[in-house]
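Hi R.,

Quick one: here's the Ribosomal RNA large subunit methyltransferase F sequence you asked about.
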Amino acid sequence: MHPRNPHNGRYDFAQLTAASPALADFVVPNPAGDNSIDFANPAAVKALNQALLRQHYDVQHWDVPAGYLCPPIPGRADYLHYAADLLATDNAGTVPTDKAVHVLDIGVGANCVYPIIGTKAYGWRFVGSETDAVALKSARALVAANPALVNRVELRQQSHPAFVFEDIVKLREEFDLVVCNPPFHASAEEAASGSRRKGRNLGYPKTAGGPVLNFGGQNTELWCEGGEEGFLKRMVAQSVAVRERVLWFSTLISKKETLPSIYHFLKLAGSPETRTIEMKQGQKISRIVAWTFQTPEQRQEWAARRWKA
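And here's the predicted structure, written out as tokens:
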């Protein structure tokens, strides 16, 4: 993991249960005799997230509605720390911090995790967009319940699922960074098939309605028309319209097979510079693809204007 990621190494369950006593109900010895949790149990995963967010991010009140995505905190933190390094390349190697940095989270979700991590780690301001009304209500409740997020996180409804930036980025509004965790699958059937495969591999419990997912996820979080590739094709094409008001666009890429397509889309869009950042958590490898429409000179001017005040 990234060297600044506080989740490097093994979980310290003694510290975590001290921060969040409710986690103790789920801590059990693993086959090696070390303390752990049953990662196939959604309630245990949620309790672990609550403990991590309390211990590392001062978030005392965090929850997601039943069935909504309960994301792995270490992986989400990795994305933001690598994205911070990306911004540092335009700032003489120094990560810009505090409210001068404005970040757009496409599909913030009910969990609001990227804004939580980014405000704590770097003091950044966030706008989170969301198409799902229930998820948006949950995210707003999280912000309202945690004073550190108030006045740093703004949440906006995207009423048109086909739009990525339109109706979200306001006139003359600028963003230093866009982050996105796109839906992976192309259909509900594909998402269900992936869930069954994951269940077989990891031994998740089975139910009459299908496998129980430890991290959950609603349809809008797991699949969309065209899947990951289709979503990113739209995102890249629509990023052209706001190219002068965003320094770096970025997205998580789950499937390595998507990479040639997104490089092709970026070439068609006319991006002069792209970056691919590989992240590894255990045996899992994922990637961030970032792109900009600004020259190195323009990016230096951007940094001087927005971050040097």
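The radius of gyration is 19 Å.

Cheers,
M.
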